[in-house]
Amino acid sequence: MKKILIGDHIVKSFGEGDEKRNVLDGVSVEMGEGEFVAVMGPSGSGKSTLMFALSGTDSINNGKVVFDDRELSSASENELSDLRRTAMGFVFQQPTMLKSLNILDNIILPSMRGNRKNAAKITEKARANMKRVGIAELEKRDITQVSGGQLQRAGICRALMNSPKIIFGDEPTGALNSQSAQEIMDIFSEINADGTAIMLVTHDAKVAARTERVMFMRDGKIVSELKLPKFDGTDMDGRVEEVTKKMWEVGI
Q: What pLDDT digit, counting tens, does each position of 9-30 carry?
């Protein structure tokens, strides 16, 4: 399996002098093309910071990050921005959408920047994505007129607009009820089955149990990993039990 993402001894520090601390303390991680990975850990363990470092969203103090054979430290801010826009997708716990735009316009907005000549194709793809995740009928709704689960589906549609090689999710089910969370994970599983790599930061053992590899973080380090067989829709309770047991073992 080709490595699409490599983090090599990443160090990320905050503060100065006696108050300086490493939020990421020499973290090394690899992801293969099409891999489905979860990152778990208590609040403050560095899991979201790791995601931002690996995506080039946040700078690092030491180490290196290589995405799709390109070392991100050598890229300019504009180049990193273009890379995130064209090759990466992002889904957050609370989708950042504009209240002045309807659902469809919020989905297409990032793709329209500097690309208005292709507006028809962009809109067509957005509608195809909305149909795929089950919100085709909501395109004219304001973001205040849909449920949290529907809004998160719209966020996934936006992340898919440029056919990314990897999607980063930061607690993408954290604000949802259990039924909506399961439906969102079904969508992520379908996206992953099509070949897109996915990294999800989560506190939820049920979310992590749907992935193929779980990395456990504590105090800025990856302290353990758990490999799981590809989820086939069965033995969910057993998978959750494995994740939960490992969480206890590593003190999360």
A: 999 998 887 778 899 999 999 9
Kindly report the pTM of this predicted structure. 0.93
Q: Are 175 and 96 in contact (CB under 8 A)?
A: no
Encoding tokens for residue 119? 């507006």
162 and 89 in contact (C-beta within 8 Å)? yes
**What pLDDT, on a 0 to 100 scale, did the predictor assign at position 25?**
95
Q: Which of 105, 76, 83, 62 is nearest to 168 (CA)?
A: 83
Whole-Å CA distances, 56 to 10, 49, 85, 122, 148: 12, 11, 11, 25, 28
User: Tokens representing 179?
Assistant: 């039924």
* Contact of 129 with 75, CB cutoff 8 Å: no
Q: Are 23 and 12 in contact (CB under 8 A)?
A: yes
